[in-house]
Amino acid sequence: MLANRKLILAHFWLAFGVFGVALTLGAWQMFIRSPIGTWLSNPELYYRSLTAHGTVMGYVFPTLVAMGFGYAISESALEQRLVGVRWAWTGFWLIVIGSIMAVIPIALGRASVLYTFYPPLIGNVFYYLGVVLVVVGSWIWVALMSINLRVWRKAHPGAPVPLAMFANVAGSYLWAWTAVGAALELLLQIIPVAAGLKNTIDAGLARVFFSWTLHAIVYFWLVPTYIAYYTLVPRAIGGRIYSDTMARISFILFLVVAMPIGMHHTFADPQVGAGFKFIHSAFTALVALPTLLTVFTICASIEIAARLRGGRGLFGWIRALPWDNPMLLALAFSFVMLGFGGAGGLINMSYQLDASIHNTQWITGHFHLIFGGAIVIMYFAIAYDLWPHLTGRELIDVRLIRTQLWLWFIGMIVTTFPWHWVGILGMPRRMAYFDFGDPAIAPQALSVTFSAIGGFILLTSGILFLVVLARGMRAPQADAGPYRFALAVHQPTTVPVALNTYALWVALMIGLTLTNYGYPIVTLALTEGTSVPAVYVGAQ
Amino acid sequence: MSVEETHENGSASAEVAARVERRWATIAVIIIVAMALLAAFAGIHRATMPQPRVETTDPSRIHLSGEFVESNLGSVLEANGNVTVRAIGQQYSFTPACIVVPVDTPITLRATSADVVHGILVQGTNINTMLVPGYVSEQLMRFTRTGDYLMPCQEFCSFGHEGMWGKVRVIDKTEFADRAKGGGRLSCVGQ
Questions:
Q1: Helix A203-227 with A376-391: angle, nearest 10 deg
Q2: How far off is chain B from A366, nearest CA to CA, in Å?
Q3: Cross-strand pairs, B56
Q4: Which residues on chain B are in Cβ contact (under 8 Å) with A428?
Q5: What single-letter DSSP state applies at residue A488?
Q6: Overall pTM surpassing 0.90 (yes/no)
Q7: Is A228 in contact with A247 (CB distance < 8 Å)?
Q8: Helix A274-308, helix A244-257: angle, nearest 10
Q9: pLDDT tens digits, residue range A229-258?
Q10: Contacts of A266 in chain B (CB under 8 A)
Q11: Nearest to A391 by CA among A513, A454, A451, A474
Q12: Which of B51, B52, B158 is closest, CB to CB, to A537?
């Protein structure tokens, strides 16, 4: 039984609450920039809304889900009470305070710099300080995950760390290190300017710092989803993990190769030389590997479940799967979206192919498909799976849950496919409106309309999700028993040290980051005359 | 079932697993290599390449001296028949707002930003580069058909971003040579 249910519920409710707000803003944005809702004459409101949407969806929502899920994993997989509960609450409140601190300047229109900051555009200093507090709060969680594992190791010398916890701690280390890039940008560059201590900033260097965070952060968002793939799905449908080793290798690969790849976001930038762009492109190709390994291992794992249920034939077993099980439904949708989004990602990271779609609506389509689609739909599944254990009540709305998942999947496809299409046509992203009267832009009007409709389907699904959770808080009481994770076909009794500890991999992660970022950062920092005057948002 | 049998079954199934895993790993590697080859093809055959060199320029002085002074912006026909285009982006327009270039000619675009981060994207082509203040962006281009192309700013540059649209007008080679005769910098103005 989970001992700190209140702590975990607090994280999840805050996460899904702010998610609901940001989702509403997102749907509104798509509506007013489409031909069906061109009544908004003030684009400034659009960018406020976009900043809030991005900041919440990028920093607050996934971080809180990872933290809440992490605490649940720590307690249930290790079967020990969480150590440092008071610190955990401190981290939670830091995030609450940070979020409020950031949201006020956004609402006042003083921080419309979107979640990627865009120096030399400089917003109100409290926006950045708020983001810093959110990150600091999450670092407390990183430390707690590490400490809890250490306590467990002392009690179980040499025993294999349960897979869920092994992955959870790998994800927390990945986050701790990837957040350093944006932290350096904020602390060394942006905050001094925002606070008025300096009035120039090196925008090129800032973009390189941010790219350090910008790609690996996606893998941090992804880790809870992958933990659910490996350790929740097979259990929920009566199967087994095909290979415990493969799972560990996948998480380690994420830890090592997710970090030194962010410069593929600067392929079209003038401040990074071609050599490092190529190296980062090659490393990004490598990071496709753990995902491909996971797709294989998970498909094999659910095949085991299907064959245990009497499934036969090369593909006939697919019919034997329990398709009315929400966890399986979420997994199937997640995989389809991961497939399309991942294929798009391979194009984005390809040094030359990127030029055709760089910074177009294609990119928006790509990351909404991966993050909003493949990842978030598993966050829903995680919440549904954990809820009875957190509330001590049964989730009875299974039909509603299925409808919600279907709507999310359909909504995501209807939203993102047209975005990919107009991206290929060259529609730039992050625009408050388009002149659909221009004959060159008019043909894109239909696609943008479809996206807006998709946005409202997603909003409907999001509302249903919150309704299911809220109703779950008042359902009849039922003991859900202990929270369990899937077992492997060959459950490990001993695991090689390299697959049971992190020292080697963290060293590799840091080493690769330093070699792939060190030289460009030092050169840029030493280049004279690249600091440019800051442009303050909202200044007259 | 004896202990030995279980063990044998276990190692047999482990072997099957290892074989299937190897196959899948091969497929995964093939996918990645195929993407790399596609990228190499685009790079070598279509000469699509990110900018190789890093050049800097002071945005607070570009209006006063150097290659981005206003009188030097626009298209110029070089002695070797190539064309160089110089442009700047600023909140919320490009200068020149309409770039004129000849068809079927190697063109070098050199551009920078006077204030915040902007981007240049020419619709219907893979011409796509960022303008970061303090740095010079260089992009090689070549158009195979004449006509007007929209050139939006593709990077958020604050509240007027959605209004920042430029244009590229690709004209006949001889017409361009005619207009370039008098020397000076060309834009769509006067056309």
A1: 50
A2: 16
A3: B135
A4: 119, 121, 152-155
A5: B
A6: yes
A7: no
A8: 160
A9: 999 999 999 999 999 999 999 999 999 988
A10: 130
A11: A474
A12: B158
**Strand B83-90 with B93-95, pairing:** antiparallel
CA-based R_g, chain A, Å: 23
Active site residues of A: 215, 219, 366-368, 429-430
Residues of chain A in contact with residue B152, where contact means CB-CB under 8 angstroms, are: 426-428, 431
How many C-beta neighbours within 10 Å does residue A421 have?
Answer: 18
Kindly determine whether residue A293 and residue B154, on different chains, have CB atoms separated by under 8 Å: no
Q: Give A285-301 pLDDT, tens digit per residue.
A: 888 889 989 999 999 99
Quote ipTM for the complex: 0.90
Q: Enumerate residues 7 to 26 of chain B having a beta carbon within 8 A of any beta carbon in chain A.
A: 10, 13-14, 17, 20-21, 24-25
Which of B10, B150, B157 has its CB closest to that of A440?
A: B150
**Given pLDDT bands bounded at 50, 70 and 90, which one contains residue B39?**
low
Q: Residues A451, A396: contact at Cβ < 8 Å?
A: no
Is-cis flag, bond preceding A439, omega within 30? no
B154 with A292: Cβ contact below 8 A:
no
A37 within 8 A of A452, measured Cβ to Cβ:
yes
- Optimal mutation site among A532, A536, A537, A540, interface B, most CBs of chain B within 10 A: A532
Contact present, B59 and B112 (Cβ < 8 Å): yes
A contacts of B148 (beta carbons < 8 Å): 440
Closest CA of chain A from B81, distance in Å: 26
Check: CB of residue A121 under 8 Å from CB of residue A137.
no
Estimate the share of chain B in helix, then strand, then coil, as percent rounded to the nearest 5. Answer: 30, 30, 40
Residue B2 has pLDDT above 60, yes or no: no
Most A CBs within 10 Å: which of B44, B53, B58, B128, as the mutation test of the A interface? B128
Interchain CB contact of B55 with A (< 8 Å): yes
* A392 torsion bin: left (phi>0), alpha (psi -120 to 50), beta (else): left
The DSSP secondary-structure symbol of B139 reads E
Q: Which residues of A40-52 are buried (b: 16+ CB within 10 A; e: fewer)?
A: beebbbbbbbbbb
- Tell me which chain A residues have a C-beta less than 8 angstroms from the C-beta of B68: none
Q: Could you tell me where the DSSP H helices lie in chain B?
A: 3-45, 173-180
Structure tokens at A443: 């043909």
Maximum separation of any 2 CA atoms in chain B, in Å: 97
Rounded Cα distance between A114 and B184, Å, is 41
CA distances from B44 to A353, B37, B111 (A): 12, 10, 24
